[in-house]
Amino acid sequence: MNKQFEALKKSRELVLKKIEGLSIEQLHKIPEGFNNNIAWNVAHLVVTQQLLHYKLSGLNCLVSDELIEKYKKGTVPTETFSEEELEEVKELLLGLPDTLKEDFEAGIFTEFNEYKTSAGFLLDSFKSAIIFNNLHEGMHLGIIMALTKLV
Q1: Residue 31: CB atoms within 10 Å
Q2: What whole-number distance in Å separates Cα of residue 61 and Cα of residue 51?
Q3: Closest CA to 44 of 33, 52, 32, 54
Q4: Left, alpha or beta for 82 (phi > 0: left; psi -120 to 50: alpha)?
Q5: Predicted pLDDT of residue 1
Q6: Which class for 120: exposed (0-12), middle (13-18), buried (19 or more C-beta within 10 A)?
Q7: What is the pLDDT of residues 29-82, one digit of tens each?
Q8: What is the pTM of this model?
Q9: CB–CB of 11/42 below 8 Å?
């Protein structure tokens, strides 16, 4: 499992490196042909990881319900982050993988509610959720990379 946690951490570092130096306006621009923006994708990564690992394990998520409601699957950008809010999301993006690993090592993930993703993957264990989340993170890293070229 250590490699899975390393992959998550590395993916998050790549996202932050890719968006480094972009303005608030660039992060929130929705290019033609897209239905979201870079800021939405970053917050969506934070929210999805929490839902897949904590909520499906019957635990409380470590992010606010408000953040979850705005950036979960099926949502679209409706607001613009302030600089302060953006920094908070970036801190969550980078810090939550360490917390996830610590919580895993502490043995808190004892239950799991099966979930079939919109991509058709059946998540039947915490481990399968970790693997799928890393795939999900890679897909959104690719979207973020494409968006950075258009903003």
Answers
A1: 13
A2: 7
A3: 52
A4: beta
A5: 86
A6: exposed
A7: 999 999 999 999 999 999 999 999 999 999 999 999 999 999 999 999 999 999
A8: 0.96
A9: no
